[in-house]
Amino acid sequence: MRSHYCGQLNETLVDQTVTVCGWVHRRRDHGGVIFLDMRDRDGIAQFVVDPDTADAFATADRARSEYVLRITGRVRLRPEGTQNPNMPTGMIEILAKDVEVLNTAATPPFQLDEHGKVGEEVRLKHRYIDLRRPDMIEKLRLRSRISHSVRAFLENEGFLDIETPVLTRATPEGARDYLVPSRTHAGEFFALPQSPQLFKQLLMVAGFDRYYQIAKCFRDEDLRADRQPEFTQIDIEASFVEESDIMGIAESMIQKLFKEVLDVELPDFPRMTWQEAMDRFGSDKPDLRIPLELTDIDDLMKQVDFKVFSGPANAEDGRVAALKVRGGASLSRKEIDEYTKFVGIYGAKGLAWIKVNERAKGLEGLQSPIVKFMENVVEELLDRVGAEDGDIIFFGADKTQIVNEAIGALRVKLGADLELYTQAWAPLWVVDFPMFETDGSGRLSPLHHPFTAPSCSPEELKADPAKALSRAYDMVLNGTELGGGSIRIHDQTMQRSVFEILGIGEEDAQEKFGFLLDALQYGAPPHGGLAFGLDRLVMLMAGAKTIREVIAFPKTQSAACLMTDAPGEVSAEQLKELNIRLRQKAKADTAGE
Is 533 annotated as a binding residue? Predict the structure, then answer.
């Protein structure tokens, strides 16, 4: 129906006749001459309809915003003074000969060029309108290019694209499963996969050696800006590999991707242990663009007459850390109060601080309500953090986890608020994660998943599981975890040792993971892999604020689709077929229940 897309029209086509299909982006009537800005997925072009072509003019006269048109006309240069060099099609216009209305359109719920004034709920309700915006088209085009680049790289590296089941067995992997009732097996349920983890390990046992998949995954968990109930993973697994092999493949893939798609040369990724990341940045996904670091001062605070500091400094699970901000003494008291409220979100009871106005004056050159409690260690403190005139020092003192989370988050917020970024892209690998973490009841649980291999023998693991490290690795970019993986457990003895430490007995393990344990008996090779969050990767590369901006049809924060009104109720007949009976909602009585 057309010869060109709108965005393809340029000076090389002058005096040629073209046919274009698209939507009316804007209609303008200038003294009897009608200008139609036509839009399709490739761009916008200007069409001119004058009264000399009576039929075309009459059709254009009744065209309105978002009408679907087919226009044939001659390409010509725009008159001097009306050209727009900032627009790909801005040097030409098309003199229309024929204008055909392919479909009319109701008045859209919002103008595409005024979407910023519209709430996200309205845009998600009418997502098919929102997706017409050039900005959204470009983001999804970018997503397509990223997927293509990833596939081409992995295929060239010998990886096979293999699909794994979407209806599978519920297995404990950290988050709640989405369950699907079975009609043919009354009272039993499938689960949607949180990841293809077990199946890709089985593919390694089967001898496929190198597998990849751009896979849909599902987790029923609380949502946030970079989390959706259904999301997409770039899933990778390989046999006869060590950590450096998988990390090398993944790093090369991301470097090639950034070069091809953004023309950005990412450097080789530095490596940092999990412990170093937590000590220096309070986070296992540190944003290295921000030149701020936490400094341990436990030893200095153990004897001070300030229990807020001395208490955590002397506690086994406590930490006192300082965060120096160059030039931060200019922060107002109101701003400091706002930062105090901010760290409270992470459990901090307050935010102590010292402003270094004139260090040469000693205590008189410092401004803070806490200096009087630590006079004997102030100079050593200032030396340790490298404080200079004009700096401010913030303090965190509490349980280690609270300090890390609160001051680590404060570091990131200060970096954004004060525009402290020193570079555009800062990648790294975080390695040597703990094998286990302790939950609120003191029980050990896997930091990643129970199939991650420890970096020690089964005997050493059982002797002191709390101190065991895993063979896991995370790729981090600008403070966002792009992907993570590990070398897997490939022998039964180690797998059963891990299950034993986690309190999973043999019968329970066989019930939940029997098919994997059975497979490990039959010559499982050493193997490992990694999974990238495709949505997060596209979000970063597109400069978007949330992954909802780079997913065609996302869910809201409450895991609902406003466009289709999902989830929704189903008929009694459907429930009966599935052998499901819903509990009736109790009605409040007059007693005020």
Answer: yes
